[in-house]
Design brief:
mainly alpha; DNA polymerase, domain 1; hpI Integrase, Chain A; 14 helices; 2 strands; 51% helix; 4% strand
């Protein structure tokens, strides 16, 4: 199977390399038209048995899309002619079943106090780790795999653009502009501006992986926040913004949740940059505050009781 033609999605490329090319070299070298339903299920089962159910579903999605392109090249002029060379007559992946139990997103957003605790841990963190982790949080908890692919060519003085393919199979990438606030600008300017990639340990030759960024965060947090995962920062940011009366629409624009409805997709040409900047400034302000009132309220009765017990 020749996998040189891959979807223009970095996550897909990594999944194919690791879980097809390296894991199943004989299948990867065979003609694409020889792939069977049973072989696909074996690939997916291997990942499930490794505890990587979500990755299993992602691999199935990318494989199915690739084979569908090879089929549709005969009827769609927008598909590159190179897909004809695969001589694919059917889609063996379409005959497999997606395991829905692995589709559930993490529904445990970091509470506001946990998000503030995380900020305190990374606020003064020196070096590349600190700058990258602060930028991820201060720019609104953008999708990790998209943010780490940021290129210097897409950075301007007051904003940067990342490319969002989420929920857009066959539609290409959607440009998502993110305002750069004052604090974020400080860390961005401190990064070495060499090569193509902003988040890099190889002088911009290639970007760090999302796994690397998540690992850095986990090392910094340790046991300070129970059940911490970097992906929970994204939902935590949205929860914090919602608590500060930032509308669902603006939160969607901040985090690139996608556009829904004919009006939003075709008639609304406003870039929402001012609104997104205001939301990110609210985020920065709230991160620097102390414990929430509810948490502080629990401490006041204890203080009074202690005072009452103090002998004169």
């Amino acid at each position: 199977m020749d996998l040189n033609q891959r979807p223009k999605d970095y996550e897909a490329e990594g999944i194919f390399d690791l879980h097809v090319v390296e894991a199943w070299p004989a299948i990867a070298q065979a003609p694409a038209s020889d792939l069977t339903q049973e072989q696909v299920v074996d690939m997916l089962r291997r990942l499930v048995e490794q505890g990587k159910g979500r990755t299993s579903n992602k691999l199935r999605t990318y494989l199915r899309a690739a084979y569908q392109c090879a089929i549709d090249v005969r009827v769609s002029a927008s598909i590159p002619v190179g897909f004809k060379a695969y001589s694919v007559q059917g889609n063996p992946v379409a005959l497999t079943k997606r395991d829905r139990q692995f589709d559930n997103a993490d529904k445990r957003p970091l509470a506001t106090d946990e998000l503030r605790a995380y900020w305190r841990l990374i606020e003064k963190l020196h070096g590349l780790r600190g700058r990258c982790l602060r930028l991820h949080l201060l720019t609104g908890g953008q999708r990790i795999e998209q943010l780490v692919r940021l290129r210097w060519a897409d950075v301007r003085a007051d904003s940067f653009t990342i490319h969002d393919a989420k929920g857009r199979p066959g539609q290409g990438l959607r440009a998502h502009m993110v305002p750069i606030t004052k604090n974020a600008a400080r860390d961005l300017k401190a990064l070495e501006q060499v090569g193509d990639h902003v988040f890099s340990t190889t002088k911009g030759v290639k970007p760090i992986s999302g796994t690397t960024l998540s690992g850095w965060a986990a090392q910094v947090v340790g046991d300070a926040i129970e059940g911490f995962q970097l992906k929970r920062v994204r939902s935590g940011v949205e929860t914090l913004l919602a608590a500060n009366r930032i509308s669902r629409e603006i939160r969607g624009h901040v985090q690139s949740h996608g556009l829904t409805g004919i009006q939003a997709r075709h008639y609304d040409g406003h870039d929402y940059m001012a609104e997104k900047r205001e939301a990110l400034e609210v985020l920065a302000r709230e991160l620097s505050r102390g414990p929430s009132r509810s948490k502080a309220a629990k401490l006041r009765p204890m203080a009074k009781s202690a005072k009452a017990r103090t002998p004169r």
